[in-house]
Amino acid sequence: MSALFVLFLFSAAVPMGLALVLDRLLGEPRRFHPLVGFGRYAAAVERLCRRFGSNRGVGLVAWSLAVLPWVALVGSLHTEGGWLRLGLDVGLLYLAVGGRSLAEHARAIAVPLAAGDLAEARSKLSWIVSRDTSQLDESGVAKATVESVLENGNDAIFGALFWFALLGGPGALLFRLANTLDAMWGYRNARYLRFGWAAARIDDVLNFLPARLTALSYALLGHTSRALHCWRTQAPTWGSPNAGPVMASGAGALDLSLGGPAVYQGNLEERPALGAGAPARAADIDKALALVHNSTWLWLLGTAMASVLAHA
């Protein structure tokens, strides 16, 4: 029994739970966040590599130089096992997930929106989305916020949990650094279309399975049949291969109508409709956060059960 307890202690479930509790209690570090330092390092790597061109090959080399040395370093320490491994796993996953930060940003919009302060809600929304928020009404602000919560549930939480469950702390680090580079380089504009191609595609690959498990989690914890129907019929119409399943399933699970036209940098983009049901309102932001929160604990429970079965 004692040997089984030790095996369980150093399985994925315990450090995952501890990291999620730390995130809930502390949130992201307010000062000296390692990802800020990584961003500066990645920018230096980009400047160096662009001396040799801006094509896909150079972009892949830049991605490798930015990500792989850190993953290799952590991986070498991770092989030591024992308490060092447990500490690394908890610390790295804590830094990789952003559940509290996601909730704080969403509630900073929901509170003024519910109070009728549309200008403040639009302003806070502009911090987390790239679309033009200046002309959005209450439903438009709520819709954009719910979409961001659903999509970032995968990017900020479940992707890291998935790769942590597979590879421990090095897996969570790999996902978070790759996702950060996608946010920095994965744009389809003149500067990054070729150079950032590798960052965008690698992020798509790393997110493929987590996104579909996220969509399944949303469906199981909401209006299941509607969520699955929206996922099956609407996700293929969405531009992103991973955001589509997550947002379509989430919209269906919440019984909301999302998607539709949005303005980006002065241009109207005709996005497909997602979900089915009523237009989003301020109260639906908390419902979306609850769906993400409940899905997080579902993942933790699933990991714990898998650990027990594996060591039984």
UniProtKB/TrEMBL annotation:
Query: To which pathway does this protein belong?
Result: Cofactor biosynthesis; adenosylcobalamin biosynthesis
**Annotated transmembrane regions:** 60-79, 156-178
Which keywords does this Swiss-Prot/TrEMBL entry list? Cell membrane, Cobalamin biosynthesis, Membrane, Transmembrane, Transmembrane helix
Membrane topology category: Multi-pass membrane protein
Recorded hits in Pfam families, A to Z, give: CobD_Cbib
| Localization of this protein | Cell membrane
Could you confirm whether the keyword NADP appears in this record? no
Q: Name one GO biological process term.
A: cobalamin biosynthetic process
Q: Does the keyword Transmembrane apply?
A: yes
Q: A GO molecular function for this record?
A: ABC-type vitamin B12 transporter activity
Q: Name one GO cellular component term.
A: plasma membrane
- State the family named in the UniProt similarity comment for this chain: Belongs to the CobD/CbiB family.
What biological function has been recorded for the protein in this entry?
Converts cobyric acid to cobinamide by the addition of aminopropanol on the F carboxylic group.
What name does UniProt use for this protein? Cobalamin biosynthesis protein CobD
